[in-house]
Each structure stands twice: as structure tokens, then as C-alpha cells.
Amino acid sequence: MISRDQYIESINKLDHRVFIQGEQVDRIADHPISAPAAMALAETYAQAEKEDQKALYTAKSHLTGETINRFLHIQQNVEDLIAKIDMLRDMGKKTACCFQRCAGLDCVNAVYSVTHDIDRQYGTTYHERFKDFLIHLQQNDYFPAACMTDAKGDRSLSPSQQADKDQFLHIVEERPNGVVVRGAKLHITGGVNAHELIVMPTRALTEKDTEFAIAFAVPADTEGVTMIYGRQPSDSRRLEKGKPDIGNLHFGGCEALVVFENVFVPTERIFMKGEYPFAGKLVELFAANHRASYGGCKVGVGDALIGATSLIAEVQGTEKASHVKDKIAEMVHLNETLYAGAITAAVKGSPNPCGSYSVSHLAANSCKLNITRFPFEISRLAQDIAGGLLVTLPSLEDQEHAEIGAYVRKYMTGKEGVDSQTRMRVLRLIENITLGTGAVSYLTESIHGAGSPQAQKIMITRLADIEGAKAAARKLCGI
């Protein structure tokens, strides 16, 4: 295992092509826009270093017997599934942002299982290849980013029907020692902070879509890979002198458009090639694991927001008001309901044919459907308690201004004994989580990450035992 500082240095040394606001960036962890996301991911390494956190953040590899970061662990039982949710909640609370490792963790677990299933049906050797790759990740303590979502082009058409086939990543050339692929993957969480990229299909495929049924891994700095950093609300505040108004002073999330322009993938790094019947299974397994994960990381961010909301009530002298106490209780209730859904998905998990464990798909989808709603209500209540100053606040730098600073310090003060800076910093944190860069992961990502609400409803309808419920109703009413 590597340390936090070793991780930061390792990604700064990557020779990958990353562009931020039209300029190529060499050292991701040093750039003011991308540094907070790098620091958030680095925290997953920092926590694994702490003696009092090792039980939560580390595990024993079933492949090597060595101690590894839990973010690279193949879940072996229900206890592992629960520990993952608790680890994600703890990280969300500590960083109040997307710390970017959930998708990679859920991806390696999905590919590990599905490669085993493909081998059983087709006599391929993908599972052994993937185990070798996983050992490579574990022994180097590398972070793999999951690359699933394609550009999709005309969404009414299948991949093979697209006028521009590059709208779905596909094989453009086969060679004796590998394949060449072209296309792009969108919304890639932590892509610019990754050592490796794991690519999967984005949807179920048919026989006509064989060239799109490709899963593989390549180093992030592979020739032909270009990453274009995604803008976020208020991200330019990170460029300001002193940066006091960014709200979250330490951490942030990031996504990127990752382009694969005629990228060569060697045979030993290919984990699916043309086995289109398994594309949908891979997507569903990854989605179920990832949807349950949201009941950990988003709940942790909710913890931080509830804490900030309670603080601002104290600072402003409203903490004893009955309606404020009632609203905070509702925030806690909604947050714990999300956590309960994720824990249910873990507790009701079951083994895969390869021996690993996966969450209950029905419980995971139900959990995620709640996550498309509850963080918005939690945020609404936070803004309600914070008050309108949340969006009309002067700059924190104005406090130090020779001419107007006295006005700001006087009129931004809360109750007696609490200075203006304390009040303003807490308000900025709430603003960050509910409106600014933090809202990217806490709100919009809660809707669309791991599949939009309709995707969860489709799976819930498919998985629910409606016929069993109808049979119970018939018996109860005598028909």
C-alpha cells in the first residue's frame, strides 16, 4: 500500500493528456481547479494509513493474502458489503464531496464476476486475465477509474445504427496481439486522477452490436487517450486569491470526457470481446453495486450538510426554535433512510458463481431511487434554515477591506460571541454543497449517477415479486 503523498506524486508523474479550460495540464494535483479533487481521492489513501481506520479501510486480498486498500477489494461476504457502505459514508462525511473511488471499486467487482460467467459459457480465459490485472492494481495500490457511459449520439438508435459509430466506443481494428478501439466515455468520475482506466459497455447489446461488446483496461497515460476536464458551478472561485469563498477549503470532485482515439489494447488487457449477451449483465451488476454505494457516500455528504446546518442555526441563534429542530430531525430521518436502504442491499446480498458477493439488486435500486429525491429535500431544508444570506453574502475578502471591512464584520455577525467570519464560512460550506461545486455530486449526480430514476424504476418493476403479491391478495379476499 502507498501513502497519501506517494499517491499524489504518482499522478503528478503520469504522462497523460489532460485539458482544463483549453489548456493542457501536466501536474493535476498542483492545478488550482483540479487539486481539490486530487486531494479528496488522496484522502482514501490517508485514511488507510491510520491505525484506528485500518479495519474499515483495508482488507485481506483473497488473491494474494496481502493487506490491501478496501477500495481494491473483491467482496467475499455480507460483512464486506456492509463495511464498504460504512467506509463510503465515512469518506463522504470527511470530504463532503465525491471522492471518486466508488465507481472503480464497483467496476472491479462487476468485471471480476462477469468474466467468470463468460468463461463458463464460451471457454475463454478472461477471468484469469482479470485476476492478473487485479493483482497488478492491488500490489501497486493503483486507482482504476470506471469508464462506462458512452456519448450515445441519437438515443433512439442502437450502437450499430448510429451515423457516427464513434458515439459508442467500439473496435475498429483487430490485430494478432490485441485490438484498436475508438470512441469516448463521458462523466468519468476521477478519470484525471486515475492510474488505470477500465472500460465497459454502457448498455445491453445485440448480435449486430458485436464490435461494441468490448471491456478492457489501459493505463491512463496510454497513447491516444485524451481527457477533457468538466466544468462545475463556481469552480473558478478556486482561482481567486486566498480562495476563502469556495466553501469546502480542502476537497472537491471531478468528472471528465475521456476520448479514445485509435487506442491499442493488448490481448492480456481485454476482458470481453464480442460476447454481446453478457454486456447487459455486466451493466446491471455494476449498476446494482454502484446504486447501493450511493447509500454510503451521499449519506456521508448528508452528514456533513446536517452538521453545517446545525452549526448555522447555533451561530444565528435559531437552534432552539421548534421548527428548526423539526427540520433538522427531518434531515436526519431522510439521511438515515438512505443509509438503511444501502445496508438492506448489503445484508440481503448473495454469492456470485465466482465466489464473490453482490448486493440485492431490488434493494439497491430502491435505495438509489430514494437518492434521486432525498438529497434535494435535505438541501432545501438546509437552505431554509440558513436563510437568504446564503446567496447574497459578501465575499469573505470584504471583511479585510480597509474601507468596507468594518461594515461586513458588523452586519454579518450572528449572535453575541460569534464573529462574522465564522458565520460566513459555514454559509459558504452550505452554499458549496447545495449550489456550488459540491452540488455536482450531491444533487445532479444523485439523479443521474449509476443510472437515472427511470433506470431504477425499470429494474424495480422487473425484480419485484408482483405475482406473489397478487397471489397473497387473491387468497386474502377469497378469489
Topology of this protein?
Blueprint: H1 4-12, E1 17-20, E2 23-25, H2 35-49, H3 54-57, E3 58-60, E4 67-69, H4 78-95, H5 102-122, H6 126-140, E5 144-147, E6 170-175, E7 178-185, E8 196-199, E9 214-219, E10 225-229, E11 256-266, E12 270-273, H7 279-316, H8 322-347, E13 350-351, E14 357-358, H9 361-371, H10 374-386, H11 405-411, H12 420-434, H13 437-448, H14 453-463, H15 466-477
Parallel strand pairs: 1-10, 5-8
Antiparallel strand pairs: 1-2, 3-4, 6-7, 7-11, 8-9, 9-12, 10-11, 13-14
Helix pairs in contact: 1-2, 4-7, 4-8, 5-6, 5-7, 7-8, 7-9, 7-10, 7-12, 8-9, 8-10, 9-14, 10-12, 12-13
Describe this structure in words.
This protein is α+β, with helices and mostly antiparallel strands. The chain has a domain at 282-471: Butyryl-CoA Dehydrogenase, subunit A, domain 3. 47% of the residues lie in helices and 14% in strands. It is built from 15 helices and 14 strands. It has helices spanning 4-12, 35-49, 54-57, 78-95, 102-122, 126-140, 279-316, 322-347, 361-371, 374-386, 405-411, 420-434, 437-448, 453-463, 466-477, and strands at 17-20, 23-25, 58-60, 67-69, 144-147, 170-175, 178-185, 196-199, 214-219, 225-229, 256-266, 270-273, 350-351, 357-358. The strands form 4 sheets. The chain has a 6-stranded mixed sheet with strand order 2-1-10-11-7-6, with no helix packed on it. Strands 5-8-9-12 form a 4-stranded mixed sheet. It has a two-stranded antiparallel ribbon with strand order 3-4. Strand 1 (17-20) and strand 2 (23-25) form a beta hairpin. Helix 4 (78-95) packs across helix 7, helix 7 (279-316) runs antiparallel to helix 8 (322-347) and helix 10 (374-386) packs antiparallel against helix 12 (420-434). The chain starts with a helix and ends with a helix. 49% of the residues are buried. The model has no long low-confidence stretch (mean pLDDT 97).
